[in-house]
Amino acid sequence: MDEVLIIGAGPAGLTCALQLKRYGIAARIVEKARPGGLLWNANLVENYPGFPSGISGVDLVQLFLQQVERLSIEIQPETVLNLCWQSGLFQVQTDLDQYSARIVVIASGTKARRLPQNLVPSALDQQVFYEVLPLLDRRVADKTIAIIGAGDAAFDYALNLAKHNQVIILNRTQRLKCLPLLWKRASQNPKIEVHPNTQLLQLNQEMDGRIALKCQQDNQTFDMNVDYLIAAIGRQPTLDFLDAQALEQTDHLQQQGRLYLIGDVKNEIYRQTAIAAGDGLLAAMKIYQTLKEQ
């Protein structure tokens, strides 16, 4: 049985594990993807203390992981399939094993809202994405990439990709939701076009393998061809592994100090690395006090 089990190894989960380690409390961390969470997608993090000129998300993740490695904190690459509460303990089923834990910290982050299934032909599965990381991993260059969205993520993705590509941002309204600073940078970048009041109507694959987009702007339809498409249309908490009973008792378990939700999984629009790290630190301190009192 584990004293503490942490689901997710983004900034919140890692910070929680680091602080627990300082208290001498062992925690099992399970992470379904690569540790670091959405930081891998971040072009530039400018509001994390200690980096006067900002730091890329990738570089910040590497620093986190160096610290984790120095403290010999192990991250297990497993996907949590089910989390339930039985007889005073959490039972955690992953794709590889099963665990019991007295305390569970959910730092599972968010998942992208997806385009309607009938809008994306299966032939385009390898060209339509919901985060920028797959394109960065492929080192895509000299391509035309469309991004649907008008928030910070859409514009941050655009600025990152525009280093080596042409980028077209499609915003279904006139209103921009991104930081004014990101809009200013994008508007000054000749490789980025922004189309307001533009709605995506249809996607098809061309004979040459590119994506044919049919769009509507101010009641006029037009077509464009791109190599890739990213939909940055919002995110929602990743909590689908919670069984019905655990979900029903979430508030009660949190009040008892047995369950903690930290970071992006609970912060709605306030998804920032510094906030997530603070959540992780606070949770670890509360866990320490709870165990100390017991």
Describe the 3D structure.
By secondary structure, this protein is an alpha/beta fold. The protein is 29% helix and 29% strand. The protein contains nine helices and 17 strands. It is elongated and about 65 Å long. The relative contact order is 0.19. The model has no long low-confidence stretch (mean pLDDT 95).
Tell me the name of the CATH homologous superfamily of the largest domain: FAD/NAD(P)-binding domain
How many helices?
A: 9
Could you give the order of the helices and strands?
EHEHEEEEEEHEHEHEEEEEEHHEHH
Give the second-level CATH assignment, the architecture of the largest domain.
3-Layer(bba) Sandwich
> Radius of gyration from the CA trace?
21 Å
Number of strands: 17
Shape: elongated
Summed up, what is this model?
The protein is α/β, with parallel strands linked by helices and 294 residues long. It has helices at 11-22, 57-70, 133-137, 152-161, 180-187, 244-248, 250-255, 264-267, 273-293, and strands at residues 2-7, 27-30, 75-76, 80-86, 89-94, 98-106, 110-112, 128-129, 144-148, 166-170, 192-195, 198-205, 211-217, 220-226, 228-231, 235-237, 259-261. The longest helix has 21 residues, at 273-293.
Describe the secondary-structure layout.
Blueprint: E1 2-7, H1 11-22, E2 27-30, H2 57-70, E3 75-76, E4 80-86, E5 89-94, E6 98-106, E7 110-112, E8 128-129, H3 133-137, E9 144-148, H4 152-161, E10 166-170, H5 180-187, E11 192-195, E12 198-205, E13 211-217, E14 220-226, E15 228-231, E16 235-237, H6 244-248, H7 250-255, E17 259-261, H8 264-267, H9 273-293
Parallel strand pairs: 1-2, 1-6, 2-3, 6-17, 8-15, 9-10, 9-15, 10-11
Antiparallel strand pairs: 4-5, 5-6, 7-16, 12-13, 13-14
Helix pairs in contact: 1-2, 1-9, 4-5
